[in-house]
Amino acid sequence: MRRAQIIGFSIAGIAGLIAFVGIQNIINQKPKIIETVKTVDTIDILVAHEDLKLGDIVSPNQFVWKKWPKGSVALNYIKKENSPDATNQFVGSIVHSTIHKNEPIIQSKLINYNKGGFLSSILPKGKRATSVKITDYSAAGKLIAPNDHVDVLSTINVGTKVYPIYRTETILQNIRILAIGKELMVEDIDQDFDGKVAVLELTPAEVEKLTLDNVKSEGKITLALRSITDNNDPNKYEKVNIIHVWGK
């Protein structure tokens, strides 16, 4: 009898231990978290591939398609499904308002130069816009951009064709560049001209002076980029001719 009791107690103890361990496992078991991934419908819209400033001329590859949440697409965004060729459609347009990288493109921020309206919309009251031919050599090696300020230099021959004496004069100072680029070629400029056009913001008097000097210099106009720190510097510069340069 005693042996049977011992065996019974042992079996009961083992069963209790197993039950205790089982209960502890159930208590300590973490509930399974079922993760659900919510899919968001997207649509391709046109965005800027890089920052663009007022007056910049849109070049190829500056606009790209990017997937955008469909619920966040405004009515004035340009959608690929409606305008599949939009990446090329706006090449040559002029930026009317600053556009940041990855910002959706809207047509109100772009102006088709050939249709007009851009320059008159950004010109301050009393100012005029006029264009001059430039090359990389005569425009600080491609470093001049819209909204930069420049000095305009004119080089003329004050000697003769046989014995030329060239003189360079700073004819205008602190002039704002409105736009610059090859896409701005206008009808009165030779089609075989291998260069660009810069559009300058001038007063009526400055337009007259530039026009006269452009004729006298036979188009030998140079733009000198000014430091952003001296845009209000009133200093005048002395005329230089080639005899002074050569030290004769």
Furnish the topology, listing elements before pairings:
Layout: H1 2-28, E1 42-48, E2 63-69, H2 86-89, E3 94-95, E4 110-111, H3 118-122, E5 128-134, E6 149-157, E7 166-181, E8 196-202, H4 204-216, E9 221-225, E10 240-241, H5 242-246
Taking all Cα atoms into account, the compactness measure Rg is 36 Å
Which structural class matches the secondary elements? alpha+beta
Number of helices: 5
Low-confidence segments: 185-194, 244-248
Largest sheet report? 6 strands, antiparallel
Distance between the termini: 138 Å
Question: What percent strand?
Answer: 25-35%
Q: How many separate domains make up the residues?
A: 2
Mean pLDDT: 77
Estimate percent helicity: 10-25%
Oligomerization state of this entry? Answer: single chain
Q: Tell me how many strands there are.
A: 10
Order of helices and strands: HEEHEEHEEEEHEEH
Quick tags:
Type Iii Antifreeze Protein Isoform Hplc 12; elongated; alpha+beta; two-stranded antiparallel sheet; six-stranded antiparallel β-sheet; disordered C terminus; about 250 residues
Walkthrough of the structure:
The chain is of the alpha+beta class and 248 residues long. It has 2 domains: 42-115, Type Iii Antifreeze Protein Isoform Hplc 12 (Alpha-Beta Complex); 123-246, no CATH class. It has 5 helices and 10 strands; from the N terminus they run αββαββαββββαββα. Strands 5, 6, 7, 8, 9 and 10 form a 6-stranded antiparallel β-sheet that branches. Strands 1-2 form a two-stranded antiparallel sheet. Residues 185-194 and 244-248 have low confidence and may be disordered.
